[in-house]
């Protein structure tokens, strides 16, 4: 599990619970069977689901006020509602449009497994299935194509009501920068460019030391993205030790102040990365210890 699924999901779910929402998390265990990288054994997949739950619990998600819904259980009871809808979505969408929603490989690759192509239809059907109706759905930004496909389908069938869907940000990989182009775009998804919930200090040190953090550039700076969406919500502040200057720690209460100092050159990228590494290590150490 990467920290977008672990930490960010925990942060946003807790915010919704605090705001008074009744939150349900749909654990898409049935969907996982179509993933060729995961064993199709439903008992193994269920174990992965329980692992995710324990990880959220360790991260501090308020699970006492969250209902966990296993999609396989829903499907067993309401298959007659779900599958006709999934098939209708597939009839009204082209193969090329389906492939454009697949994040696992390049759009419209003829080598795509058929299960991957059909997956967007299954996702849309889950959103629109009457037995899974929600006032608001929360997805991450990497699911934006699925959200658009859902709206397109609703418009195509002239549905009077469309689902309300909120999108939260996702964390970039550590080399996600427009000024850097990797020879192989698939490398962008490699574990060495991303942070996972089970990463230990030695692994984090190597990953963050190689991370892109251009001096005086805040836009598209992956390290600053992690600080903005993880460090500040988690700790309420961000502290940088300015070793090469006064030697005094500088504490920031908001991201805007940090950006001003960073773009002016008052903050050294190395010091920022060291502070980022220290913070993420502190978070993950507690989580790993509690598992």
UniProtKB/TrEMBL annotation:
InterPro entries linked: aa-tRNA-synth_Ic, Rossmann-like_a/b/a_fold, Tyr-tRNA-ligase_arc/euk-type, Tyr-tRNA_synthase
Top-level taxonomic group: Eukaryota
GO CC aspect terms: cytoplasm
Keywords assigned by UniProt, alphabetized: Aminoacyl-tRNA synthetase, ATP-binding, Ligase, Nucleotide-binding, Protein biosynthesis
GO BP of this protein: tyrosyl-tRNA aminoacylation
A molecular function (GO) term: ATP binding
Coiled coil: none
Family in the record: Belongs to the class-I aminoacyl-tRNA synthetase family.
Protein name in the entry: Tyrosine--tRNA ligase
Protein's organism: Triticum turgidum subsp. durum (Durum wheat)
